[in-house]
Design goal:
With about 350 residues, the protein is mainly alpha-helical. About 65% of the residues lie in helices and about 0% in strands. It contains 15 helices and two strands. It has a two-stranded antiparallel ribbon with strand order 1-2. The chain is globular and about 60 Å long. The termini are far apart.
């Protein structure tokens, strides 16, 4: 029965759908729940540092249930997107409703789309990788599949990684650096891959070219079928999803750096190079993304068996609450620099 706790993750698409369906003042329901109620709950439900016993961990590694819970997010995400576009195509909406719906759909793009794609993108099965790419398409962030796996995980917590926030860097500056740097890095990584294979950069084998074409066709089809207002609303929602992802990137490695053992060579990624939190609600809603230290220590570990490490630096709050704090740099710096000082002492 404990395994069924991940069904609670479907509260996220549930409240997002209600925001889109009820409209009026209810368009901000998802924001109120996920960035209001959830951080409040996490003040009283701190979570546990307990790890699964070895025999249970071994059983859970290949249990089909945990994979199906992820797979269901694909039709749910496209269903939400289809309904969102349909409403923009057929209903007369106030600017207030438009803003709320774009923010709500954007949260779906970030939480259901990119977050679940992040988990599936690390899998070995081609079918799961295709699902990851399909989910990333809903945020027009397909290059994340390349840059995250081949770039971020290699260079995390070093100056070479655009998705590692520097100490003293605001989240607003980080958004621009990480978004632009990650996109350029994906092109560079794909060029390197093709070079090793002895294939030309401009070819059918270039994934980045394919990803750009797929995204352009996707946006064009939305414009043709649902009209320009719906298309621009989708672009706004995709941007919100991207900002949500990059805000999470910002807090996951803020101020943490690996030692350079020789010129351009860094120590192995260890649990101390990622911020962790065991807050129960966020762990469930985000499919254990908050146990980020173990994910970077061994990226192939599935979400249901991620572990807590004593040496992992701990965030003072869960992800939703910390994401709010990132938007207020003076408060963020005061809290996080105190945490960094504890680590460095």
């Amino acid at each position: 029965m404990k395994d069924l706790k991940y069904l609670l993750a479907y509260l996220v698409p549930g409240v997002i759908f209600l925001s889109l369906y009820l409209r009026g003042n209810w368009v901000f329901l998802a924001i109120a729940v996920l960035f209001g109620v959830v951080p409040l709950l996490e003040q009283f439900i701190s979570g546990t540092e307990e790890n699964l016993p070895p025999e249970i961990e071994e059983q859970n590694k290949n249990r089909r249930l945990f994979d199906l819970l992820l797979y269901l997010n694909l039709p749910i995400q496209y269903g939400l997107l289809g309904y969102f576009l349909f409403v923009f195509r057929t209903e007369t909406l106030t600017p207030w409703e438009m803003a709320g719906m774009i923010l709500s759909m954007g949260m779906a793009c970030g939480s259901l789309g990119i977050n679940v794609a992040h988990e599936l993108g690390h899998r070995a099965k081609k079918s799961e990788q295709r699902m990851a790419q399909a989910l990333l398409l809903t945020s027009l962030y397909m290059h994340f599949f390349i840059e995250h796996n081949r770039g971020h995980h290699k260079y995390v917590a070093t100056p070479l990684d655009p998705a590692t926030a520097r100490k003293g860097e605001t989240v607003y500056a980080f958004w621009f650096r990480s978004i632009s740097g990650g996109y350029l890095s994906a092109w560079k990584l794909e060029k390197q891959r093709l070079l090793k294979l002895g294939k030309p950069f401009v070819s059918f084998d270039n994934q980045m070219i394919w990803f750009q074409l797929i995204e352009l066709v996707f946006v064009g089809m939305i414009g043709l079928i649902f009209g320009l207002p719906a298309m621009f609303a989708f672009l706004g929602a995709a941007l919100v999803g991207i900002i949500e992802l990059e805000t999470v990137n910002y807090l996951e490695h803020y101020g943490l750096m690996r030692k350079e053992v020789s010129a351009g060579v860094y120590e192995r990624v260890l649990p101390r190079h990622s911020w962790n939190t065991n807050r129960t609600v966020g762990r469930i809603l985000l499919y254990e993304l908050t146990r980020h230290s173990d994910h970077h220590f061994l990226a192939s570990r599935k979400y249901q068996v991620l572990r807590h490490f004593e040496e992992s630096p701990q965030l003072p709050q869960g992800y939703p609450g910390m994401m709010i704090l990132t938007l207020i740099p003076p408060v963020w710096f005061r809290i996080m620099h105190r945490q960094l000082h504890k680590i460095e002492a």
